[in-house]
Design a protein that fits this description.
mainly beta; four-stranded antiparallel β-sheet; 11 strands; globular
């Protein structure tokens, strides 16, 4: 069973930073598009960011553009989400996702139903 394991969540004050990590259990995902989604209290799951299999293309939701940065590790299979200038509106469970998505990231990689593989999620809480 292929797994995606997120880490790096926690409690942070508004204006602070966190870095989330997503480590797939198999190197198969080295050729996959990776995405981050989040689900806040009482809200639907929403797209946050995505990165192409080779790291050459990235996409961001307007709400996080300029504050969040997605990247892929060179030697390992890990994908990172650096989150800066966090606000209480960023409070959510953050999920990592993976799939073999062909073509431009937008729009397919921004749609959660395009991904077959998901992690369990990591809680991010931003205190005001």
């Amino acid at each position: 069973q292929v797994q995606l394991v997120e880490s790096g969540g926690g409690l942070v004050q508004a204006g602070g930073s966190l870095r989330l990590s997503c480590a797939p259990s198999e190197r198969t995902f080295i050729s996959y598009t990776m995405g981050w989604f989040r689900q806040g209290p009482g809200k639907e799951r929403e797209f946050v960011s995505a990165i192409s299999w080779n790291g050459a293309d990235t996409a961001y939701a307007d709400s996080v553009k300029g504050r969040f940065t997605i990247s892929r590790g060179d030697a390992e299979n890990t994908v990172y989400l650096q989150m800066n200038s966090l606000s209480p509106e960023d409070t959510a469970v953050y999920y990592c996702a993976a799939d073999h998505i062909v073509g431009p990231l937008v729009p397919r990689a921004t749609i959660h139903s395009e991904y077959h593989y998901w992690g369990q999620g990591t809680q991010v809480t931003v205190a005001s």
